[in-house]
Amino acid sequence: MDHLAHWLRTSSYTVVFTGAGMSTESGLPDFRSQSGLWRGKDPMQLASTRAMMENREAFVEFYQMRIQGLISCKPHAGHECLADWERRGLIHGIITQNVDGFHQEAGNLAVAELHGSLAKIRCLACGTEYANTRYLEEQGTICACGGFLRPGVVLFGESLPQSQVDQAISWTEEADLFIVLGSSLTVSPANWFPQHAKERGAKLVIVNQEPTPLDAWADLVIQNEQIGDVLQRVGQSVGE
Length: 240
Known about the structure:
Elements: H1 2-10, E1 14-18, H2 20-24, H3 43-46, H4 49-54, H5 56-71, H6 77-87, E2 93-96, H7 102-106, E3 111-113, E4 116-123, E5 129-131, E6 149-153, H8 162-174, E7 177-181, H9 192-199, E8 203-207, E9 220-222, H10 227-238
Parallel strand pairs: 1-2, 1-7, 2-3, 7-8, 8-9
Antiparallel strand pairs: 4-5, 4-6
Helix pairs in contact: 1-10, 6-10, 8-9
């Protein structure tokens, strides 16, 4: 913790990368664990462009379930720490694989959402956006124009949003400290960002419950710790 606090204090440009482990501490399920969202399910039948067009009832039910789960949870202490660090100029951007919108809810402004956001839904026909709670209403999947409303997440079969990728690349290439929080670093192309930061000379810190493929590259690895606890303890040291 002392090393991370020192690096955070002395870094000129710090970027944070968050994955599912950041969200699970708020009570949201991950995707690939024993109790994850994909256990016993085929993602291509529920969360793909094909499912949206050809298996729409199951598609809608799956995302209604996810939205119900999302609105029952809230940001945890780790999210609050990151928002405070951004306000204080200690971090300069958050690249996230998560779609819960908790970073923004906690107060972060500089967030690149690689996989989109479940906080909003939008019309396939006219592009109008609505709050995600619209999906839970009767006829809540139909826009005022008559078009179908879809979640704002990246589905299987879609490309990552280029504007978000470009922002993430820009931050990564500026970073002299790159902190990974709660990602297995097994999903491409998202895991390219910490690799690229390290190759460009940044210190790499990985905080995750389990080992990752990039642990051998990292300058510091913290395992078997709650992210919220780690960030609070580092924050106390930085604030001294």
